Amino acid sequence: MHRAMLELLYPPACIACAKVLPVRAFFCETCDLAVERLPPARCRTCAEPGDFPRATCPRCLASPPPFARASAPFAHDGPVARAIHRFKYEDHPELAPSLAELLASESQHFLSQAPSLVVALPLHARRFRERKYDQAQLLASALARTTGREAPVGLLARSRETQRQVGLSESERARNVAGAFTASPSVAGREVLLVDDVLTTGSTVRAAASALHQAGVPRVEVLTLARAFSLA
Ligand SMILES: [Zn+2]
Ligand SMILES: [Zn+2]
C-alpha cells in the first residue's frame, strides 16, 4: 500500500500504546521515556546482555553459534515489547514500516557493515493461516526497503511444524527447532542478514543459520528489534 494511503488510514500514533500524536513519531512522550535500550555490555556474538570475560557469554563459549554476530537495539521490555506484541498478535501489520524505520535508525552502525540480502525468520504455515500475515517477513521487507536492500521471499522455509518456544527449557528449545528449516539452493554464495522481531535464547536463529550454511551461505548475521535477557 502507498505511504500516503497508509497515513490516511493510520494517523500518527504511538506504536506501543496507540495514542494519537500531533506529529509523526515512533512513541508518545511517556512511552519514549520508558524505552529500554540494550546495554553496551553484551556478548559480542549473540548480544546477550552482561559483562562477560572476552565479551563472550557462557552459551556462545560452550557452543559457538552458526552466525557471525547478532544485534538488537532494544531490550524486550516496556514499550518496545508492547509494540512488538501489537504487531505480532493484535492484528497490526501496518506497524511494519515504523518498526523497520526504528530498527534501521537505531542500528545504523551494525547495518553499515551488514549483508545486503535480508532473509526473514519464517513463520509456521499453520500460524500464518491463523495470523494471516508473517510479521518477520513484513519487518524484513520494510527494513530492506528503508535501507536499500533486498528481501526476496521463499529463501528460507520451515520444513516441519515446531512447538512454541515459550515455556520450553533451553535444551528443549534446541531439540524443538533442530532441522526445522530448509534454505533454497539459490542462496548459495550469498551472505545473509537474518531478521526477526525478538531474539531470546537464539536456538531458533541457530537452527535457521545452520540451514542457510547447509545451502552454501558463507556468513549469517542476525538483526532483531529486541533482545530478551536469557541468561540472567
Ligand atoms: Zn505511547
Ligand atoms: Zn553469546
What's the gist of this structure?
It is built from ten helices and seven strands. It is α/β, with parallel strands linked by helices. The site of one zinc ion has 7 residues, from helix 3.
Mean pLDDT, all residues: 91
CATH C-level name: Alpha Beta
Find the structural class using helix and strand composition: alpha/beta
The total of helices stands at 10
**CATH topology, anyone?**
Rossmann fold
CATH architecture: 3-Layer(aba) Sandwich
Instruction: Find the count of extended strands (DSSP E, 2+ residues).
Output: 7
In angstroms, what is the radius of gyration?
A: 17 Å
Largest sheet: 5 strands, parallel
Whole-number total of structural domains: 1
Give the fraction of residues assigned to helices: 25-40%
Q: Judging from the principal axes of the Cα atoms, what is the shape?
A: globular
Low-confidence stretches: none
Order of helices and strands: HHHEEHHHEHHEHEEHE
Work out the oligomeric state of the chains in this entry. single chain
Bound molecules: zinc ion
Span from first to last CA?
A: 42 Å
DSSP strand content = 5-15%
